[in-house]
Amino acid sequence: MKELELKYGCNPNQKPSKIFTNDGRDLPIQVLNGKPGYINFMDAFNSWQLVKELKAATGLPAAASFKHVSPAGAAVAKPMSDTLKKIYFVDDLELSPIATAYARARGADRMSSYGDWAALSDVCDKETATLLAREVSDGIIAPGYTDEALEILKTKRKGTYNVVQIDPDYKPEPIEHKDVFGITFEQGRNELKIDEEMLQNLVTENKVLTEEAKLDLVISLITLKYTQSNSVCYAKDGQAIGIGAGQQSRIHCTRLAGNKADIWYLRQHEKVLNLPFKPGIRRPDRDNTIDVYISEEHDDVLRDGAWQQFFTEKPEVFTREEKAAWLQTMKGVSVGSDAFFPFGDNIERAHKSGVEFIAQPGGSIRDDNVIETCNKYGIAMAFTGIRLFHH
């Protein structure tokens, strides 16, 4: 199959629409179920590249959760604590390594992952399909599916769930093209290999990167390679925990990603873990309620009468002081940036979310100020010398 007709493009008025190859080769994908659209395939091909690179760089099964051509989460298969299993709503499931990777990828920012496109580096098994079956998701791309997994996925969304299989050996041409306003752009594909070798130029007084930090920095940089720029990624324990994508200002990326990382960590506080939800509350409703409970708008959940639709009893107030004290215990976080930090304010904001390790290209006229701010907090920072813009 050399081309596939789509229902429409980005929007229903954009017709005709199709995907095809320019080199005469067959498409490297098979649609096993559903009818994926234009944006679905944009998510599918970007997310597949991300998980394939993560697997190649780490040797671990990898997964991503994509929305609007940027990852909401990305992770590799590392064992999860009971706390993480609980906040990711998978403490009742048996998880294989690839299912663990997806649970981590989706769990980092469950609000953004609602209606996601899932990507797996490995064959989708029964455990991963079972997890996906009960979440709101638009589709999945993987190099293969077990018979049991495919049977489960075909029942999702009344039989319309999008299931795409990709040839893991497919390699595109080294030159890529893109049309904008009738003009064709051409460039070499971004074939940059990201691994620990990129982290050797440590420019701060602290020149110690733990093995865990090296893994997390590699994950953050590979994630940024497929995130709409400007972008910043916070990572910890083998997964992205906060991604700030598509911002015009670097500090806004850092704040957005940092706020998401904070929410990820606040969800692990005992007050959130012990919220007295009524039986049968849907996971998306729990996510929304938890998000509001953590935010400064928690009075909307706790005001007289409002809490009764979610909880068996009125929860305790999660005070600003309690949240600040909990966030001060957040440590060992890594941050990657797709371009240089122009000011030390980015480091100040990252430090508030427990960041101890940073990888960024360097090259700002204010590099000295950025390094000085890192030294103030004992942060180890590597200059990679490589920009990772993605548009």
Automatic annotation (TrEMBL):
Tagged with keyword Transferase: yes
Keywords: Transferase
Documented EC number(s): 2.1.2.3
Family annotation (SMART domains): AICARFT_IMPCHas (SM00798)
Gene3D superfamilies according to UniProt: 1.10.287.440, 3.40.140.20
Alphabetized NCBIfam families for the sequence: PRK07106.1 (NF005492)
SUPFAM superfamilies named in the record: Cytidine deaminase-like
The protein's name in its UniProt record: Phosphoribosylaminoimidazolecarboxamide formyltransferase
Keyword Transferase: yes
Superkingdom classification of source: Bacteria
GO molecular function, one term: phosphoribosylaminoimidazolecarboxamide formyltransferase activity
